[in-house]
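Dear colleague,

As promised, here are the two records you asked about, laid out in our usual form so they can be pasted straight into your sheet.

NAME FIELD: protein one
SEQUENCE, THEN STRUCTURE:
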Amino acid sequence: MTLKGYIPIDLSFSAVKTRLLADDPVHLQLFADRFNITSLGELIPYISEVKGYVNSEITIDGTLNTPVRKGYLKLIEGTCLMDMNNLQYNAAMEIELNNKEIVITKMEFSNYGSVKQKGVLRGTGKIDLTDFTDPSILISVNGDISVLGAKRKPVSLSLYGDAYVATDGDVIFSMAHGKAFLKMHLIIKEASITFPPTQTTYAGAADNFYYYFPDDKSMLTSREVEIQKLLTVYNERLKQTGQGKNGGYDFDYDISINIKKEAHFVFIFAQEANQKLNAYLNGDIQFERRNGIQNSQGELKVLEGSTLDFIKTFTATGSLRFESDVTNPYLDIVGVYSSYYTESDTSRGDTKEEEVAVKVKLRGPVKDMARSFSKTENNIAVYYGKSNIEKGNVSTEYDNVDAIWFVLLGKFKKDITAQDRTKAASQIDPFTGTATSVASSLIGGFLNTYLGDMVRSVEVRNSGTATKFNLSGRYKDVKYTFGGSTNFLQDLSSASIRVEYSLIDNLIVRVERREATSNVNFSNEMINELGLRYRFEF
């Protein structure tokens, strides 16, 4: 790379009004032939491991007041590592210069390295230099790209996982006359994001565990320390010049995030006790700022297949609202645990099973779950019998203690013995517990790790003398549930199977084979069903 030419400067030792002679001739020529930008070091903040080559031939003639620009600059074979998400990207750019403007004819940014989905963003732009003191900028970009990956986890405590997004139309950034504006509408095409526990999340059985969070400042690199110093000096200058908050550019934005199908979010309340919300979501989130007024709103709906782990696995329904902090949504979740209560019939001298459901309500910001759950009344209830479950009638004869005992052992407090209390203690203990619910969670987590959404959950429970299980998952747009009694190993026709397929948005066809729920004389009587479901949203 070579830079040669001359700039008119008054080098007199005496005091002069201006050193730069704006009306005298100037000539600068920048030439580069596969210049390795690695030699420039980490010049750009928050970007490291910069590699690539620059070809350029740029000439500036005329005067400083009326410069005449022409030439080009190309970045080829560029790569870098984004410090914010610890992901690697390819980069390419072509720029042309003329008298009045800088034109970005090509701009590409793409994934490479170990990411689940790889995409590319392409864009163009223009910088108008008619008024050099107040240039106007217009840049548009579109495409798809991964913004989160498995390597994110070591660099962030707030969230990690995989996220693959696409633009809905062009992402546009403009700046002119003291105002900047960003329009960015994104579609989440695929996502599996985990929100780890914070100091204030709901703990429940994990009250004896303490979380220690390192001071991020002690882990700053020397380059980041220098950047912080520069920002401090810049802010001090703003205060001295009286610009402050009103100085510089006003920045407005219109940002929306849309999940058309579904995205997988995991909110961990207590890691040691395996308390978490495993949610499949869709919906929209919008962030807007116009003329200094900010507005954030949006709601993500919890879809079928979502679960709440709270001692055992609950099915989860409800929604998440995003009002300000994207890492701290407002939860409005209802978890339902369903099983069967074995009741002795003294008049007939036999036993019968009755379906029972326990519902848990979680309402409030994620980070306030500890306070809101413990202080909220009527957030857990028992529904005894199929009729009460279907109609939503709470069985008032059972209280919160009955609900917890039923989740733990399938019994109510009137049935509990000293031996049952010992057994319950072993189930609550996250290290020594051997309950079937813990085994189910471990098996389901193991299969999900290696098979992905093909196996989302595994549930095992005892029903009288039989052992029943459910295996659910998804393959592309087909959802399935397979289960029943372990007797299906001898007779496959006794297995329960449900398959759902989305024909179009909100229109679902379901084919199901399940056990009869009416009182019949044959335990293996099966029912075949075909159903259509259309979901209205308003």
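NAME FIELD: protein two
SEQUENCE, THEN STRUCTURE:
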Amino acid sequence: MSENENAKGKANTPADARSDAAREDGGSAASSPVRAFLRDGIAWLNTNRIFVYANIVLFFFLINGVAAASGCRFDFTERRANSLTSSTATVLAKIDDPILVEAYISQDVPGEIQSGIEPLLGTLREIDRVGGEKINLTIIDPDSEESRKQAEERGVQGLPIEQRKDAESNVRVAYFGVFIQQGETTEVLNLIEGEWFVQDLEYRFLRLIKKFGRSGDAQSGIAFVQAPGLSGATAWQQQQDQNKDNYYGFRTVLEDEQGRVQDVSPLDPIPAGIETLLMIGLPRFEDIESYHIDQFLMRGGNLIVLAKGFEFQMQEPDPRTAQFGLGGNAGIGFAAVPGEDLQRFNEWLGRYGVVVNGEILFEPRQGMPIYDLFGQFVRQFPYAAWPVYARDLGNIVSDNPALAPIEELVLPWTSSLDLREAVQPNVSFEVLIRSTSGAVRRDGASLDYGPVAEVGSGAGDIRTGEAAPMAVFASGKFQSGYSEETLPEAADPARFRSGQAGDTASNLVVIGTPYLVSDLLLRNQAGLQVFGINRAFVLNLLEAVQGDTDLIAARSRVPALARLDPFFPESPTLQSAFETLFTYFHVLAIPAILAIFGTLRLLRRNQRRGLAPESAPEVLATTEN
């Protein structure tokens, strides 16, 4: 490029720039008000709280709508209480014929009842979603004469509901039941038990579906061992029949779930149809009885032992005072170890790797808060003879299928166990539950409430020093506890099995208390909650040893016990002081916090208005100087 051209270019550049700028200004002049309006509008919207909050709400509903349409849901409740367990998919996957489900649920009810209906409707809809084509769900509001007649024809009975409005009240009939049909088999599932809605609808529904798959007189393959010293299941004739050594309530539940349960005497060989024996108590076996149970194990049978390590009696209330709600002369007697009977039992049980310690075990820091069993006291207090063992406290230490979904258990009046693993080298021993290292052992003690409250505060109390096994699950190929030289006289040597042959294996479960699911627990609401938790565990064990784990997850979803973490001091006096302190703290803390907050806020407001305290002028003058 020549110098003239460079000079010409330099001369023309400012003019060209001004010309371009003029053109740009001219072109944007018309659009600048629009841009300014949009810019100011967007800035206003971004700073307007009403607009921002409205968008957040709309976004929330949009996300929920998309999630509902896609079947996506999140359950943030404790232990996922509003979600189905894996049991639903497992059970429904095994059915062939579709299931008709008609839920007759009244909608026009008071608000407090409506709040209990919604979770049930959610559970039914979720079962319908998981079941797909196998579940045909219809939710019907019996608000017409025709629909009410249909509900009653299905077997759903109406309940009177009183509704009040101002000074008027009327009574109407409401329906809360589910009609279930598969083929020719039908059942009605009531949604109200007692005075409120059922809390375990999923489990009850699946239990009925499993029941459809067996005939009415089907055998469960489970039997109670009958022998001196063992507990039975006697039908209740009076309240006293609901005692610590009766298991009629549990047996009723078991037969409803599994089919007919038998009673067997080991005086004869165990029948071939029996798969699992349930032994509760401290048996006084004859030699031939022990031998027949041994041979039952050798053929591949399962044995669950709820063992009794000590004996005691309970004095029932005087009927003349009990009718007025008073306990009378009720009480729990002195507990002692039956040395000879327990030693003989352990000589037999020890051949399979487990023995029961002759002791009364107390947990001073993990006793269950209970009312007394006879209604003598109003307040609850921790009862160290009923320890609460929980997974988060390090007591439940196993992920065995029967125990994996369970977070806590109560072991009423229990003893610990010892393992003798070397005597059964082909068997694996798994500890399910352990005590604390601070548990107290005694070979004799009063089990009444006052003396038990003092356990752990004396210098002479014997501590375990380490966590002791409380429940053991042994599985594998057992060797017989007998040899050809030690067979009982009545035994047939030609049929003797010295061990398990081929693929045969057995399960042995031993727990140090016979009161896990005792009828005694069915007397009051607190006991019913314990019964529900322990019932799930024992039923899980029975199913696990028989190889059926379909219902375990749903059954194990039971309401948790209300408990405080065991950080209280072991002294009963100090523990009572802590309880009083916490009581007043919960009563007074919130009013005190509100009072302090209100005072500080008032002081700040007065300062802003110039109503400072008297010392404020002096401070101001000092600052100015």
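A couple of things worth noting about protein two: The radius of gyration is 36 Å. The CA atoms of residues 288 and 489 lie 8 Å apart.

Best,
R.
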